[in-house]
UniProtKB/TrEMBL annotation:
<dbReference type="Pfam" id="PF21729">
    <property type="entry name" value="IRX15_IRX15L_GXM"/>
</dbReference>
<dbReference type="InterPro" id="IPR006514">
    <property type="entry name" value="IRX15/GXM/AGM"/>
</dbReference>
<keyword id="KW-1133">Transmembrane helix</keyword>
<feature type="region of interest" description="Disordered">
    <location>
        <begin position="34"/>
        <end position="57"/>
    </location>
</feature>
<dbReference type="GO" id="GO:0009834">
    <property type="term" value="P:plant-type secondary cell wall biogenesis"/>
</dbReference>
<keyword id="KW-0472">Membrane</keyword>
<dbReference type="GO" id="GO:0045492">
    <property type="term" value="P:xylan biosynthetic process"/>
</dbReference>
<dbReference type="GO" id="GO:0000139">
    <property type="term" value="C:Golgi membrane"/>
</dbReference>
<feature type="compositionally biased region" description="Low complexity">
    <location>
        <begin position="34"/>
        <end position="44"/>
    </location>
</feature>
<dbReference type="GO" id="GO:0005794">
    <property type="term" value="C:Golgi apparatus"/>
</dbReference>
<protein>
    <submittedName>
        <fullName>Uncharacterized protein</fullName>
    </submittedName>
</protein>
<keyword id="KW-0812">Transmembrane</keyword>
């Protein structure tokens, strides 16, 4: 008769053996399933011709919900024909080009993605009056947002611009963009790129600052209001920078994760973006 210690050892051996056999069976079944069914290639968003938001008003992270896309479309349509600049590029955003129609309308997209640039060009197909697509490289990761903002607050060159954005000495200004972007007077600017979804990914600090600077310059030069929309304001970086440079006083509408600002030529001190003090970051 086995002692309790021997019995326990035997039970452990039996259970270990059964677990090992089960693992082998699962591995074999998984391998057989993989060999019998070919791998399904990853789909590109440009393979799907549906450019609207989801039907129930929600959206996966990074895409526009139906109500957010509706706000953007109505904003562009109300200003059309206008000059529309979009940081970011997706089938949803490309649909804004169709809303901006009429004599004198111009639409430009800025993206850091080769895939999105190529996909958009396939959709546009070289159509007359098609939107312009510009490639950009964003040097700063989202994880650097606070350090950049702290330095910008202490730097005179990052205050409210008085001249062309192209000649700005501020680190946040995207001065490497083409002259046709930086020297144009835009009526509507949308910021929904780059991704900025993780700390190591390119962040939207530069696009938001540049959008605000372009809006201020255009408003001052033409005496008109400029509409700026920022997406993903549920994220800290977008919320910080939108409040810092587009100003809560200018916030006129919000839907879901989308904020709509209207920047005028007048208002606020001449050397600052906002009339209120800097946003306190806790």
């Amino acid at each position: 008769m086995m002692s309790p210690k021997q019995l326990l050892t035997t039970i452990l051996i039996v259970f270990s053996t059964l677990s090992f056999i089960k693992l082998l069976l699962l591995t074999h079944s998984s391998a057989a399933a993989s060999s019998s069914s070919p791998a399904r290639p990853l789909r590109s968003p440009w393979d799907d011709d549906r450019s609207g938001g989801s039907g129930n008003g929600t959206a996966i992270h990074g895409s526009l919900a139906a109500k957010e896309l509706a706000l953007l479309r109505s904003l562009v349509a109300a200003r059309a024909p206008c000059r529309l600049l979009v940081f970011g590029l997706s089938p949803q955003l490309l649909a804004l080009a169709a809303a901006n129609s009429g004599h004198g309308a111009a639409t430009a997209f800025v993206t850091d993605s080769d895939e999105d640039a190529d996909g958009a060009r396939r959709v546009l197909g070289g159509a007359p009056g098609a939107a312009a697509i510009h490639r950009a490289r964003y040097p700063d990761a989202a994880g650097e947002a606070w350090a950049l903002l702290r330095r910008a607050r202490a730097s005179p060159v990052c205050r409210r611009p008085t001249g062309t954005v192209r000649k700005s000495g501020c680190r946040l200004a995207l001065t490497s963009l083409p002259r046709e972007v930086l020297d144009a007077r835009w009526d509507v600017v949308v910021v929904d790129g780059p991704s900025g979804a993780a700390a190591h990914e390119p962040g939207r600090m530069g696009p938001i600052y540049t959008a605000a600077a372009l809006a201020r310059a255009a408003a001052a030069a033409g005496g008109v209001e400029v509409d700026v929309a920022v997406h993903d304001v549920d994220r800290t970086v977008e919320r910080w920078y939108a409040r810092e440079y587009l100003c809560e006083d200018n916030l006129v509408a919000a839907k879901g994760r989308l904020w709509h600002f209207r920047v005028a030529a007048s208002g606020g001190p001449s050397d600052a973006f906002c009339s209120t003090g800097p946003v306190q970051i806790l």
